[in-house]
Amino acid sequence: MxxxxxxxxxxxxxxxxxxxxxxxxxxxxxxxLNDKRLFLxxxxxPFLAVLSAEGIVPKLMWTRRLENGDVITxxxxxxxxxxxxxxxxxxxxxxxxRKIHHSNELLDMLKRLQKKPLHPEEILLDITxxxxxxxxxxxxxxxxxxxxxxxxxxQNIQYxxxxxxxxxxxxxxxxETGDKQLYLIDWDGAMIADPAIDIGxxxxxxxxxxxxxxxxxxxxxxLTDNLRLRMKWYVVxxxxxxxxxxxxKDLQKETQHWIxxxxxxxx
Length: 267
Description:
Layout: E1 17-20, E2 28-33, E3 36-42, H1 47-53, E4 60-65, E5 71-76, E6 80-82, H2 91-101, H3 104-112, H4 120-133, H5 135-138, H6 141-153, E7 163-165, E8 174-177, E9 182-184, E10 191-193, H7 196-206, H8 212-219, H9 225-248, H10 252-266
Antiparallel strand pairs: 1-2, 2-3, 3-5, 4-5, 6-8, 7-10, 8-9
Helix pairs in contact: 2-8, 4-9, 6-9, 6-10, 7-9, 9-10
């Protein structure tokens, strides 16, 4: 369904066709005029320009500031596909994630945007505070076991080399073009943190454990006991946060899914 969006009236002529691009904010759109295609978003982070320059997201075409201070960005609209779960063991995934984690340009930009490094103590405190408001969940044995694991291992998973982490490496955020160019999109949750956040989620969700060594070799890491522990710590913490989020949205099917997954991690 074609739309007309007020803030786009200042950017595009009437000839453009505009369609919603989905997403939680409702501030993203596709626009098309003949053979010209754009992905438009309101108030994207300035981080987008560096991601584009690094070839991590589709090319940034232009940026416009409206009179009310809103910033509109236009990216090249690619003809690509979202990866499926079975695609996530490919070498290009490991290579792009390594590039992201080793990029000084991305790290410098997040620091200029006043992003502070995320420490595991902050994650644990956030979980504890949220559980105080969710009495029923806090009494679940699975949640209790997960929280106990996080508390017991907190001092054993300290890691000083913080990098830029995407923090949501779900297969839906990976796009591949027809000529096999790979992109990682949706950077709203990016943090400066332990790379084990991204690596751990990706390996636990998508890669068979017997293949972890070979995947990490593609990335450029050895599977040590410390890395294995750090990955598990962040996967457990993110799983508890997912349980809390879905529960507040009263999405019981999804809540139970993540409770079952947490049980598989801690059993």
